[in-house]
Amino acid sequence: MIIVTEICKIELFEFFVTSQSFCEAMVSRYMKQLCEAISYLHRNNILHLNVKPENILLDENSTLKLINFGSAHRMNEDSVIYWNRGTPEFVAPEVVTSCQVTTGTDMWSVGVVTYLALTGVSPFAGETDQMTLFRIRDFDEKLNFKHFHQISESGKDFVSMLIVMSQSSRLSADDVINHEWMASSVEKKLETERLKYFQSRRKWQRSLLTGKSTLTIRSMTSLLHGEYGSTSLAVPRHVIDDVTSSTTVTESEDEEPPLVPRPNPTPTIQISSPLTSPAVERREIFKAGRSLSGSMERPLQLKEDRSKPPEGRRLDLLQVGKKNNESKQHHLVGRS
């Protein structure tokens, strides 16, 4: 059996930051294509549940493609679906709180992606994954539009109709396609500096996926309760001894929050002295959550009092000189 798939070479956001004509109208055109894809899924009773920039690609004709259906669920008439996994910045409140998910769950993610595309700012990103989830869970329906000074009123309305706590109050995919912003003709060029920074951050996180590594899917509940510690935008990896492929992982990156490097081992400094042996070891231990001045344990005493040589090793230079002279005289006498 041969499986033939498309090759999509560029992510939507990468296309945005490299485009010389990036503007609000361009964003609205591609968001319309995204919503048409989601509308098709919803009409066929499928929830995607993982809408985020990395899963939105463009083909060689610049046609949008929604990928990665690893989290997708099929809806039945009497089914109730619960889902609490994903990338923290883009999940809906009902995912954070492990409540029932619906078609509105995908539309929340569309709203976050649109907000990010227009401003370069991730609306709920916090210092840690846990803080990000707190912001989503406790959202008070008041979006921060301070970065929307270049955006039209219809663009603001579009986003505000999707990032809503109540699932039933969010626009459906079909409603979004008919929203007035989808016909936006605002060609004013948008700034891309913040969006470039976002792209750089995500690329750095993905670059940490190296050989002999595996990803572990974590639920939003466990992250919300801080079971994995205060990891800034990331979670640590675990090394597998028998994995050789540099691309082999147990699950897709798309089910995983971004990554941070494994912590380095405690640094050890060896200091040698001509008067002491073996070398003295100094270990500096830094404790998380404390300032540098208060985080270092008292090191071993490294200073040596050179005014008092170690017992049994005192060197008397006069005695050494005297013995050398006696030895020379002894040799001379022997020769005579």
Automatic annotation (TrEMBL):
SMART domains: S_TKc. Residues 245-336 are annotated as: Disordered. The lineage of its organism: Eukaryota, Metazoa, Chordata, Tunicata, Ascidiacea. Residues 300-316 have a biased composition (Basic and acidic residues). InterPro entries: Kinase-like_dom_sf, Prot_kinase_dom. Keywords: ATP-binding, Kinase, Nucleotide-binding, Serine/threonine-protein kinase, Transferase. Pfam families: Pkinase. Residues 1-182 form the Protein kinase domain. This is Protein kinase domain-containing protein. One of its GO terms (molecular function) is protein serine/threonine kinase activity.
